[in-house]
Amino acid sequence: MARNFACPYCYETFTAREIQFRCNTRLSRSGRRCKAERDQVRVDRLGDRGEVGPVFTADGRKPASDCPQCGGETIYRVCPVCHSLLPVQFGMVDNRLIAMVGARNSGKTVLMTVLLHELMNRVGENFRVSLMGSDESTMTRFGVDYEDKLYERRQMVLGTQSAAGRDNRVDPLVFRFGRIQDGLLGPRSQPTVLSFFDTAGEDFYSRESVELNTRYLSNADGIIVVLDPLQMRGAQELALAGTVMPEADSNTPQQVLSRITSMLLARSSGRRAVRIKTPIAVVFSKMDAFWHQLPDGSPLRVHPPQHGRFDVADSLDAHEEVRDLLKQWDGVSLDQTLENNYARYRYFGVSALGRTPTPDLKVASTGIQPYRVTDPLLWLLSEFGSVPKQGRG
Fold this sequence. Notes:
The protein has 393 residues and is an alpha/beta fold. The chain is 28% helix and 20% strand. It contains 11 helices and 18 strands. The protein has helices at 40-46, 108-120, 122-127, 136-152, 207-212, 214-218, 233-236, 253-267, 312-328, 332-341, 375-384; strands spanning 4-6, 13-15, 20-22, 37-38, 51-52, 55-56, 65-66, 73-74, 77-78, 94-102, 129-133, 173-183, 186-198, 222-227, 280-284, 310-311, 345-349, 389-390. The strands form 6 sheets. The protein has a 7-stranded mixed beta sheet. A 3-stranded antiparallel beta sheet has the order 6-3-9, with no helix packed on it. Strands 1-2 form a two-stranded antiparallel ribbon. A hairpin with a 6-residue loop joins strand 1 and strand 2 (13-15). The radius of gyration is 22 Å and the shape is elongated.
C-alpha cells in the first residue's frame, strides 16, 4: 500500500503520487506564460485571495513537472487538498506534525515561542541541530508576532485565536529541523519537517469545538498538552507568594485532557479496546511557582545533562517527580486517565520565563530564563528517531 502523508498546513492525508504542482507563471522555453489568478481552493481553505499560478495534476513523487498549459517546468509541489506550497523535499524526508494544545491561560503560546527560540540558539548548538522557517509566512509570523513581541518588547504573547472564529481555519508554523549526523562518508544533515499546530484553549472547552480540531489531533505524530498547575485546586495554595494567578475557569486541566482523550479514542479502531498510540507529552508550565516546595536534589530543580543526547534516565526521574506532585495537586484522576488510555506518555515540568510575570503581564526585569522548555519536544523527536537518546525507557 502507498504511504500516506499529512499536509503540514491542513493535516489532510494523501499519497506522494497525489501531490499536485503549481505553475510558476514564468515565460517558458516555448514563449508561453500562464496567467496568475485567484485559486478558489486557497480562498475556501485558507482565506488567501492572492493571485497564483494554476494547479495541475502530475506524478507528485517527482521533484518537478511540466505545466500542461505553457510547457514550463515547475518545482512548486502543492497539497492536493488545500493547495499550500509544500516544503522542499516533502515526502522525501521525515514529516512530523506536532499538535500543541492546552487550556486557556496555560502559558502554551509563550512556552512554544521560548521552546522554538531555544532550539534556534542554545539548545540547537548543544544538539548540533538547526531550526528555520520552512516558508515565508512562518518566518515572518514567528519573528514578528511571537519572538519579537516576547523577547524585544517583553510583552506576554497574546493567546491563540480560536479556530471556531476563523471559518474553522488554523495557521500552523512549519519549520525545517536539521541535525548533523556522523556517517561513514563524513557528517551529513538529516532533515525533518516539523509542523506546529497551536490551538486555542477555548477550542477544547466543548465537544462541538473539539470536533473542529479532530483532523489535526488525529493526524498528528505527537501531541504536547500544556497544563497550568495553578488551575488545579490543590496546587494554588502551594504556589510562591506573589505568583500571578490565572483567571478563574470552570474547565480544569482534567476536563481538557478528558475531552482530548475522548476525541482521540473515537477516531481509533472500534473493534477492540486499545490505548492511544500517539505519544503525548504532558507539560506542566509555570513550575517556578513551586521550586521553593521542592527538596534539594529534585530532578525538577536541575537542568538536564548537556551531552547532545536526550537523556532518558533524567527524563524518567522528572516524570516520576511530577507524578508525585499530582498527588499533592489533587491530580490523581489526571494520572489515571493517561495510564488507562495512552500507550506512550511522559510528564514534564517546565518554566518558559523562569519567574512569574509582572502584574501588568510583562516579562520580569530579570529577563527570560527558560527551564527545561525543550524537553517535551526533544522527547518526541527522540521517540521518532530524529534526535539521539541516551539510555532506555
